[in-house]
Amino acid sequence: MEIGEVKKRIEELRAEIAENNRRYYVENAPVISDYDFDMMMDELMELEKAHPEFLTKDSPTQKVGSDLKKEFVQYPHKYPMLSLGNTYNIEEVEAFAERAEKSLGKTFTFCCELKFDGTAICLTYRNGKLFRALTRGDGTVGDDVTDNVRHISNIPQVLKGGGYPEEFEIRGEIYMPYKAFDRLNEERTRNEDQPFANPRNAASGSLKLINPKEVSHRGLECTLYHVLGENLPFLTHDQALESAAAWGLPVSDKRKICRDIGEIEAFISFWDTERKALPFATDGIVIKINELACQKELGYTAKFPRWAVAYKFKAEQALTKVKSIDYQVGRTGAVTPVANLEPVLLSGTTVRRATLHNAGQMHILDIRIGDYVYVEKGGEIIPKITGVEMEKRMPGAKVPEFPKYCPDCGTMLVRDEGEARFFCPNSDGCPTQIKGKLVHFISRKAMNVIAGDATIEQLFNLGFVRRPSDFYSLTKEQLLRLEGWKDRAAQRFIDSIEASKKTAFDHVLFALGIRYVGETTAKSLARHFMNIDALMAADRETLLSVDDIGEVIADSIIDYFSDPGHREEIERLKAAGLEFSLEEKSGPKSEALKDNIIVISGNFSVSRDEIKELISQHGGKNSSSVSGKTTYLLAGEKPGPEKLKKAESLGIPVIDEAEFRRMIEGNTESPAADAGPSHEKADAGPSREKTGAGPSNEDIAGSGSAAPVQLTLF
Ligand code: IVH
Looking at the whole model, is its pTM more than 0.85? Predict the structure, then answer.
């Protein structure tokens, strides 16, 4: 690969990994399998190894994915909360054991455990009582979920017996057993809520519920596997777990002390089969050096302990027969082939359908009707077909024919530029696309109207709603004609529609469903143009000057607004009273910071997002890293040491919040606190700099764990 190509590939991989990390840790809705994610990470690691000149501190290979949410208060971790190096191949476990042997040069043992597939938790016990529970967060600070954790039944509030240290931490995994997961998803489907893709997402979503009482109904469980503290009286990890169990803490007894790689392999292969009978999900085996002195000697990298490794099981596969293929039209008109299968059991559930993604993928697989295929569960709810068992192909098996016309409205399909997907171009006339757009319009991150797909289906079939503006003229009488609807449901729906009129402009923009305009892009556009008229009037060049808007998005926006039908619909929505501007709330306030590029670091009296908003309201630009172009480093409490060092070395002035406010003083009409959705608590945005992580985090330990990172609301 040429050097330019390497750089480009590294950037691509980093962007994809960052997006998938966000979907996994924040949205709890991954779109790719763990295996595919790990393969991307491996490729990035290899490229960075071969080209260390491109390695940066903020590469995803150097830090753990972040699960922080602004609805929670955040506290620093006393000891960094790291991840585990992982592998899918036994030779690498062997290499891990050999490396440890070589660097330790003495006898030691391994403790092998199940790898629980949930979300990591860090519990602190003080004087025998549960004091605090933090999520992993970004590894340095975590979200405080203590109130929620108190509703998980197998986590003791008070320890039993005696002999426990005055204060210690114990880390583990919170997960949702299959039974609770099935029950929850059934309930969500009944209530027309989006079901969770897998038990892991259900567990992390449930742990972050805003109402702690709801947590108790979710059936979460916890297993703890790592004790930490000062001067702990144990020689081995196994002893620590045994003591924890004696104090009433939930510790797994499915662990084994192994003396060599042969015993480790036997443990792995035993559980690769037996795990299928467990009532909860496991995704591998964790192999840890058992002796704590040896662990200390081996230490940590920036991201992983050198004393442990995870062997991950490959996703379970099943072999089954393709009965037929359906072609489904989505909201954007993309046509997705979905195979109907002979039912087959896969990771605890019966699979009847699997996605083939697009025409390109069908071609690569060379699939025929009647073929036996391998199905696998990825990150999504719908499993995917990963291969065809050619040896079982019947002679004369029929080659599936991708439709030429839309299966829904009969319009001739067109192929997208990459030639992989077919689209129905009849975006405003194809019923499936219309319904898809309506569902998108009312979805949580758009207009947030309480209703699901089935309601839209009925409203559409009865001819009551054909375009988004129709929602705003629905009457109670019409709603009472929906199957099973009584007065209360109808009133709830009407109230929800009415409340949606207050939705902020950026969400309204996202709700319009302009191709490629996702949540983040909608935010950038709203902040830049401030109102829909300015956005509609923007030419390509102006659009391209907006942060994060490239040619594809710019063309799509131009295309959308050049359609008179879309303009008319916007007028109707305006007339219904929807928010089409940000002007009143966060219009530009001054040019006090014009041409200034400001990097922020640390914590402020308001959220970091609000500080960023102030910078842009006063004509400045926010940038994430310090460089020669930076005008100021705006340092809050506990700024990142790396950024400070860099600013000093480049001679860039460091200002504090008071000074920053003086600079914009007299220009601020009102604090920018109301720029985002109004109900949100301050984003306690911690400093994300890594500290080169050892087992104790010098930068944060001094601050103790008593004070939240940042709490104050404006
Ligand atoms: S030990 C310093 N043991 O897997 C890291 N982790 O993919 C110590 N996990 O971050 C972690 N089961 O959240 C450990 N028996 C086990 C585990 C386990 C699940 C999770 C943990 C970790 C992740 C890495």
Answer: no
